[in-house]
């Protein structure tokens, strides 16, 4: 049982001091450069508290150099680390979560190993860092500070202790996962995925306000316009105050505001009395702007950037085709003990269903599938498509 495993409470060599001056950072870069092998890297953000997803603390560990804790908010530019690490591998748990905030600080890897993705490729149902540490190292890893406000200064000693432990376990975990991938004949699959992650960029939305939770409940283009203007005002307010926009108003509050019939900022204050009067006024002005737009200025009900694939199939036939392809991929995923969304992105499978018969392999390559994904998936998908009725 998990509770019977020993708790890793403190780093083996204690908690290192926080590096927060340029001189200390230069010294840390030299020490890391003199180390050897892969570099364990983690980052702590203040998601849901501060605006954006920037890193407030970056943790590093390397053989021969030990653990380094960087105050990345003060240091800002961490690009000198790139030359310290050279071509060596960066070990990160969940690259898609941490790499964007590291890139924002100027860090660019030449090689990657994602311990979360490795665990998923091995078919593990639990792949959070604590669960992976339990399975690989036989230890419990405390995670009570994962949602803390890492923008706080000074950082409490127990938080730094927690942060140091995260990178202390990454390198031994990496070695065990590497061996497990080789034994499972999946190392080449993982290697291609890690190489692909080097170019990872978070998805960009031309109209991010359309991701407002509850927006689909609105049928009126005028109300949708109100959400757009309110979302933009809230986002600007969050950026200026450096707080998460959701702490000003939640998405459901924006939708409720759009459905209200406001006459003044006082009406906003009545509904949300915790708002500052200046903020209520700003939101009301955004609301009023939306009420004065011409019909041509109102947003479409659907995302203008959501391009529907041309298909000769009816809606019902398309639904059946996609279902058949998904079923085939689910069976293939179970055979190889790889999650279906790792085996091949669901969006690619859905897009393939809308295509008339053609070269599946060429289609997958054109959609960015890696070679291992093409080799495993293309024959199954091709056979499935050929078994379905033509358009």
Automatic annotation (TrEMBL):
One of its GO terms (molecular function) is nucleotide binding. InterPro entries: 3'-5'_exonuclease_dom (IPR002562), Exo_C (IPR041605), HRDC-like_sf (IPR010997), HRDC_dom_sf (IPR044876), RNase_D-like (IPR051086), RNaseH-like_sf (IPR012337), RNaseH_sf (IPR036397). Residues 16-182 form the 3'-5' exonuclease domain. CDD domains: RNaseD_exo (cd06142). It holds the Pfam family DNA_pol_A_exo1. GO terms for biological process: nucleobase-containing compound metabolic process. Gene3D superfamilies: HRDC domain (1.10.150.80), Ribonuclease H-like superfamily/Ribonuclease H (3.30.420.10). It comes from the Bacteria. This is Ribonuclease D. It comes from Brevibacterium sandarakinum.
């Amino acid at each position: 049982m998990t509770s019977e495993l020993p708790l890793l409470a403190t780093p083996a060599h204690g908690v290192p001091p926080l590096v927060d001056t340029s001189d200390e950072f230069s010294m840390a870069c030299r020490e890391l450069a003199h180390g050897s092998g892969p570099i364990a890297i983690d980052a702590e953000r203040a998601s849901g508290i501060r605006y954006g997803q920037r890193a407030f603390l970056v943790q590093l560990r390397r053989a021969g150099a030990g653990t380094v804790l960087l105050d990345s908010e003060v240091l800002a530019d961490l690009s000198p680390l790139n030359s310290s690490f050279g071509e060596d591998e960066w070990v990160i748990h969940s690259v898609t979560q941490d790499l964007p905030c590291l890139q924002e600080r100027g860090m660019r890897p030449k090689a990657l190993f994602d311990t979360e993705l490795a665990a998923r490729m091995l078919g593990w149902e639990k792949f959070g860092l604590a669960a992976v540490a339990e399975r690989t190292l036989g230890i419990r890893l405390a995670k009570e500070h994962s949602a803390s406000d890492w923008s706080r200064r000074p950082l409490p000693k127990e938080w730094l202790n927690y942060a140091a432990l995260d990178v202390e376990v990454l390198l031994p975990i990496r070695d065990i996962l590497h061996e497990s991938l080789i034994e499972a004949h999946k190392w080449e699959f993982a290697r291609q995925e890690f190489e692909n992650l080097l170019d990872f960029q978070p998805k960009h939305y031309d109209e991010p306000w359309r991701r407002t939770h509850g927006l689909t409940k609105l049928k009126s283009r005028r109300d949708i316009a109100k959400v757009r203007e309110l979302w933009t005002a809230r986002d600007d307010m969050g950026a200026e105050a450096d707080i998460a926009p959701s702490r000003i108003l939640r998405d459901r509050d924006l939708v409720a505001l759009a459905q209200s019939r406001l006459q003044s900022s006082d009406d906003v204050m009545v509904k949300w009395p915790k708002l500052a009067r200046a903020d209520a006024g700003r939101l009301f002005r955004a609301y009023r702007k939306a009420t004065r737009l011409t019909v041509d200025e109102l947003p479409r009900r659907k995302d203008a950037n959501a391009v529907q694939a041309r298909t000769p199939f009816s809606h019902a036939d398309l639904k059946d085709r996609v279902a058949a392809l998904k079923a085939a991929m689910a069976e293939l995923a179970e055979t190889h003990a790889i999650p279906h969304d790792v085996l091949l992105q669901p969006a690619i499978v859905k897009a393939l269903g809308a295509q008339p018969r053609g070269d599946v392999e060429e289609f997958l390559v054109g959609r960015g599938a890696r070679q291992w994904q093409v080799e495993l998936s293309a024959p199954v998908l091709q056979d499935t498509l050929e078994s379905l009725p033509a358009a």
